[in-house]
Amino acid sequence: MITGTELNGEIKRLMARGLRAGCMARQFPDVAALTFKINNLKKEKNAVICAHVYQTPDIIYGVGDFIGDSYKLADDSRKTKADVIIFCGVHFMGETAKILNPGKKVYVPSINAGCSLSESITAEDVRELKKRYPGLPVATYINTSADVKAESDCIVTSANAEKILRKLYEKHERLIFIPDRFMGANLAKVLGKTPGKDIILWRGSCVVHENFNAKTIAVYSKNYPGLAVLAHAECPSDIINAVDFMGGTGDMLNYIEKTNASGYLLVTECGFGELARIKFPEKNFIAMCRLCPYMKSITLENILEVLENPRPELEVTVPSDISVQAKTSIEKMFELAA
Fold it and tell me: Same domain, yes or no, for 218 and 165?
């Protein structure tokens, strides 16, 4: 049982990290009681928590040990000395952490933390693509299952896709990019490639990013002079054509840090807007918010339950043969992104 002194101390810690009542669905004492217990259990069990930037602020700043996009969290997870990794993101991210740490226990706290992109393609689909386009390297967005990664030549994230594809094109005239058709089209434009000719795309998309509206961006830009518009690379091309910057969430944070616009319009999942407001309290943000139901299925209660009573269905497992093959494509990403 947490004492009054401990509770007050935890509330002060959370406030010092930037949390405020307006960015949480519950009262400070309720959040603090959970984060205090979770952080103590982490120490007891030698566990770490990877928190994606789309998670809620109470998770990111209350219990997160590693915070970032999918690339950073994959890199962080392979360096940790913890025995247990609790991945507060979506299931494919937990699989990546397990592939990089086969000897550790990895948990995703919610069975509902899936991903529309990951579900859009199977390993059999990849094998059929390779038959149809023999000899072409397969560059695969990290938002995919371990089975799909095992059929791939190199994994990419939104933070490094352009860099890695440029390196692949130095040795290959054509390549296959899966599964996000919008990101693939956006990359093709940046690289001067033609979809269907130089870059073969799949039909996957993100349920969050495919639904933003370019007309809304135009209205904001007209009404707020000097507004910098940032969009995630998973957005459709008409969105990307209307923005000042395209990239992953890590790239967007770097852009915000290094610039001084009168305001920033953020075209991505809601959680990023909450994170940006806390990280840069002196700057102005408008979040074109769309909620990811998969990311937001994880709560502090889920995390506490995993630490107290880890259920088998929440543990991430990857067959050893799939893990070995998938690790090769993931390691290729780290090599080419260096």
Answer: no
Range of the domain at 45: 4-113+295-314
List, for residues 202-239, the tens digit of each pLDDT value. 999 999 899 898 999 999 999 999 999 999 999 999 99
DSSP 317: -
Are 275 and 178 contained in the same domain?
no
φ/ψ of 25, rounded to 5, equals -80, -15
Q: Going along the chain, which residue ranges are E strands?
A: 47-52, 66-68, 84-88, 105-107, 138-141, 154-156, 175-178, 199-201, 227-232, 245-247, 263-267, 285-287
Domain boundary among 205, 221, 238: 205
Sign of CA dihedral 133, 100, 109, 89: negative
Choose between 271 and 39: higher pLDDT: 39
Residue tagged 């008409």 (tokens): 238
The residue assigned the tokens 């205090």 is: 36
User: Which secondary structure element, helix H or strand E, spans residue 9, and what is its range?
Assistant: helix 4-16
**3-class secondary-structure state, position 165:** helix
What backbone torsions phi and psi does residue 139 show, to the nearest 5 degrees? -100, 120
- Residue by residue, DSSP assigns 34-102 as HHHHHHHHHHHHTEEEEEETTS-HHHHHHT-SEEE-HHHHHHHHTT---SEEEEES-HHHHHHHHHH-T
Summarize pLDDT for 150-169 with one digit per residue, the tens.
Answer: 999 999 999 999 999 999 99
